[in-house]
Amino acid sequence: MPKVSVIIPVYGVEKYIERCVRSLFEQSLDSMEFIFVDDCTLDNSINILCNLVREYESRLAKSHKIVRIEKMPVNSGLPSVRKFGLQFCTGDYVVHCDSDDWVEKDMYKLMYEAAIQYSVDIVVCDYLHTDGDLYNRRFRGCYTPHIREFLYETLEGKVGWIVWNKLVKRSLYDNKIIYPLKSNGEDLALISQLLFYAKSIVYINKPLYNYFCNDKSITRMSSKDAAIKRFLDARENLNILDDFFEARQLFDDRYETALVNLKFKQKQFLYLYLNDPEVQRIWKIHYPELSTKVWYNSLIKVKDKLKFYLVIARYRLF
């Protein structure tokens, strides 16, 4: 059985996939499983991947690394691809890697050894936002050794809710996970559920994952339609999270404060397009309770509160 399974979605990354794959195939940890999921990419990404598999064939065999290339029936988006890849995982631990990013050579060795040494369900590391050249900004992955506190800090946005800096015991996925299928806020919906079921966590104070800041990324697309889609997708994923925790009676004041803050952040997607009647209609329909709750929320900065109420007054969004 592999020690670690890595799920890597592949779509439209022919410019970047070689860097990602080399960083994976050259990992110092032995006995690994790489599951590449082709989301019906239209470019040359899969051909590049296959060439690299052939190039590393001998090295992979010596270090007991397995490579699988699976394909989605239709183009489905990142959340569905990740869920699809899980069914092929056989490793003790599971981790995700985006195919335009790359990892440090010892990332999975350090994380796996920490998981075994401390007998934990989840291992978290720091990460970099980088353009691959001059820009490098480090982000801390964790501030507490307590799993429930880490869950709250994740919900509150004090730490990143991304999946790719977290090594997760595969058995956690055997719980009743509600899988998000929309592409905004999906990491928060998934990670929060896994943290709920986890009993222990350990933190590695090293930036082991490199998140590539690609200006052409879908998360940076800006238009009215894109803003509406981001908002509605994030809302659907937040509903998954809210339903999950409500069913398990995790609904205290701290959670409520975090939930209001998350809804507030989603509303900000719409700010630039509030002169449009359709956007105004969407604003009024969703989260009307925010008009009375934002001002008293301790997680929201005063300047952001003031802007929120000025926006409401300017466009008469009562």
UniProtKB/TrEMBL annotation:
Q: Does the keyword Transferase apply?
A: yes
The organism sits in which domain of life? Bacteria
List, alphabetically, the CDD domains matched: Glyco_tranf_GTA_type (cd00761)
InterPro entries linked to this entry:
Glyco_trans_2-like (IPR001173), Nucleotide-diphossugar_trans (IPR029044)
Keyword terms: Glycosyltransferase, Transferase
Q: Which residues form the Glycosyltransferase 2-like domain?
A: 5-147
The UniProt transmembrane annotation reads none
Its recorded name reads Glycosyltransferase involved in cell wall bisynthesis
According to its UniProt entry, this protein's organism is Bacteroides ovatus
